[in-house]
Specification:
mainly alpha; 16 helices; about 325 residues; globular
């Protein structure tokens, strides 16, 4: 795939002394890195670089090689238009796409660091969090779904995502061959690759018997006997070859609307909502942190703490002391 829709880097000088690092064309860099990163990462880098190059072109600035002054000005401009997390992703994408001497120098330049600090002071670094589909909401969405084939798929999709704390990409890659029923009516699902497991070491998640029943019903009705667990469903109940990750949050939002959830809740539902909800339910139930991290395949407790920021204070030292003192 070529970057035909991206503006060419005009007037880039020839690399001195045969060195290709600072001036290697962007397309060659992304092609060279193909396979080292996930498809989602490559798409994000391309999209983010299109924003950067478009901004530079509108101001008659060179985007390649990246220069610290240009990057700092870009951060200042974007800080007033985009969420801080989005701007930081832009910067990471620029560094990834234009990796090497020039990009490394620009990213480490004090002007870039100061621009990021200005943005943080002005906007803060707190990100919006997906609305967790905790157990009562999970049940409400499942019960509100209809009786069509697509509704059977949606029930199974949500239930599997909740039990396995699955990301949308993991859901769409899950295969029937990796589903293993157990003797108690439940099952395990092997995840061969995930966002935090680029090396493909794999992980296995647990599916409870009610989730396995919903999944089995979908598989029987759809006639799926191999390949992807979750597929698109067209008009007339025609089952497609696969489900794209971008459809997952739309499915959850549609289920939330059908269940009569408030508009602001529907808006906050995302592809991560079952994952967030399951983590919040574990925290509320007193499940220990290592077990939660294992279930969600988190390497650090940072995301668990973020998801449970309104629940964890109730288990803090101050809360425990208040209970011991009868001041609850």
């Amino acid at each position: 795939m070529r970057l035909d829709d991206r503006p060419a880097a005009a007037g880039a000088p020839e690399p001195p002394g045969g060195a290709t690092d600072p001036y290697e064309p962007l397309e060659e860099r992304i092609v060279a890195g193909r396979g080292a990163y996930s498809d989602n990462t490559e798409r994000a880098v391309r999209a983010d670089m299109a924003v950067f190059r478009g901004w530079c072109a509108a101001r008659d600035l060179d985007s390649l090689p990246v220069r610290a002054g240009t990057l700092a000005a870009f951060i200042d401009a974007m800080a007033g238009q985009r969420a801080p997390a989005t701007v930081r992703r832009y910067v990471a994408s620029i560094g990834l796409a234009q990796r090497g001497g020039a990009a490394a120098d620009a990213l480490s330049d004090p002007r870039v660091g100061l621009a990021l600090k200005r943005m943080q002071r002005r906007r803060g670094c707190r990100q919006k969090q997906a609305h967790g589909l905790v157990w009562p909401l999970r049940e409400r969405l499942i019960e509100a779904a209809g009786e069509r084939l697509i509704d059977a798929r949606n029930r199974a999709l949500l239930a599997v995502a909740y039990d396995g704390l699955l990301r949308r990409s993991e859901l769409c890659r899950a295969r029937l061959a990796d589903l293993e029923p157990d003797t108690h009516g439940g099952a395990t699902l092997l995840l061969r690759r995930s966002k935090t497991d680029a090396g493909g070491r794999s992980a296995t998640v647990y599916l409870a018997h009610d989730t396995t029943a919903l999944l089995t019903r979908w598989l029987r009705r759809s006639g799926i006997r191999d390949g992807r667990l979750f597929r698109s469903v067209g008009k007339g109940g025609r089952v497609g070859p696969g489900l794209h990750p971008s459809q997952v949050p739309r499915i959850y939002k549609a289920m939330a609307r059908a269940a009569g959830l408030p508009a602001e809740v529907v808006e906050a539902v995302s592809g991560h909502s079952p994952r967030v909800g399951a983590a919040q339910d574990m925290i509320a139930a007193g499940v220990e942190l290592p077990a939660i991290m294992h279930a969600g395949r988190w390497k650090t407790p940072a995301m668990v703490s973020r998801y449970g920021e309104r629940l964890l204070p109730g288990r803090s030292g101050a809360a425990q002391l208040a209970r011991l003192q009868g001041r609850e």
